[in-house]
Each structure stands twice: as C-alpha cells, then as structure tokens.
Specification:
This protein has 150 residues and is α/β, with parallel strands linked by helices. 21% of the residues lie in helices and 13% in strands. The strands form 2 sheets. The protein has a 3-stranded parallel beta sheet. The chain is elongated. Keywords: Ribonucleoprotein, Ribosomal protein, RNA-binding, rRNA-binding. Part of the 50S ribosomal subunit.
C-alpha cells in the first residue's frame, strides 16, 4: 500500500501473532502433545472433579451452619408514627388522613400507617385510614379524638 492511499476496511488484518488457535484440552496426543494440557497423573487428568469437592475433606457447605427461620412474603410492613411526631407535624390537630401524613413527610407513600403511643397530646385528632396501638388509641381518645381504620 502506497503512502498516498487511503486505508480501507478490506485492508485491515490482525497484527502478526495476535490470532492463535485455542488449545483443545483432553483431546489426546495428536492435538497438542503428550498430556494434552492436563498435567501429570491424578483424578483431574482422568475425569472431572465437581466444583466444591475438597478431596474427601468435609466440604465448606457442610461445615457452615444451616440457615434457619422463615420470612413470610405476605407480611404487612407498617409505616409507624408516634404521637409525639404527630403533635410536631400537626400542632393544631384536626382531621388527618394518610395523604396528609405523606404530604408533610411524616410517612412514606404506599405503605399502611400505624400510630404508636410514644409522646403526649392534648389536641383533638381525628385519624382516618390508619391503625393504632392500644396506648395510642387511649391517648388520642382521652384528648377527645378518634381513630378509624377505613
């Protein structure tokens, strides 16, 4: 190719020595040489040893303890909010829904909400669409409020 010619796609070829044939291991003497890339005598030369096999020693997967327990895929995970936080976010009280709590950033969207009884309140809360612990329900009802789950 002369100096003034433009390099074309069909002129490209790999560098010398860049392309070598793959060694076909375990295919006999004719393919590459005496032991065919498998080394000297032993189990791995004659046949395959499965992954994790430790030569008869107690294998790692049997030495480790078993995984115990069970996680239910149907468990309902609640977003929790305490009465103290409720009083912090809504000091004036009033009627509250899950959407109001999400809008203020008190809980995340997409999960059911449960009110817990940590803290005190004197303000009247009417909570709709939330669950409540027994202590939270008692404190909210003592302040004149109510809780409904629907």
């Amino acid at each position: 190719m002369a100096d003034n010619e433009i390099l074309q796609m069909h002129d490209l070829k790999p560098a010398p020595g860049a392309k070598k044939d793959r060694i076909r291991v375990g295919r006999g003497e004719g393919s590459k040489g005496k032991t065919a890339g498998r080394g000297a005598k032993g189990q791995t030369k004659r046949t395959h040893v499965r992954p994790g096999f430790e030569g008869g020693q107690l294998p790692l997967y049997m030495r480790l303890p078993k995984l115990r327990g069970f996680k239910s895929p149907f468990k309902t995970e609640y977003q929790v909010i305490n009465i103290a936080k409720l009083a912090e976010f809504f000091p004036e009280g009033g009627e509250l829904t899950v959407a109001d709590l999400v809008a203020k950033g008190a809980v995340r969207d997409g999960y059911p909400v449960k009110v817990l009884g940590d803290g005190e309140t004197t303000v009247k809360y009417t909570l709709k669409g939330v669950k409540a612990s027994a202590s939270a329900k008692a404190k909210i009802e003592a302040a004149g409020g109510s809780i409904s789950e629907d």
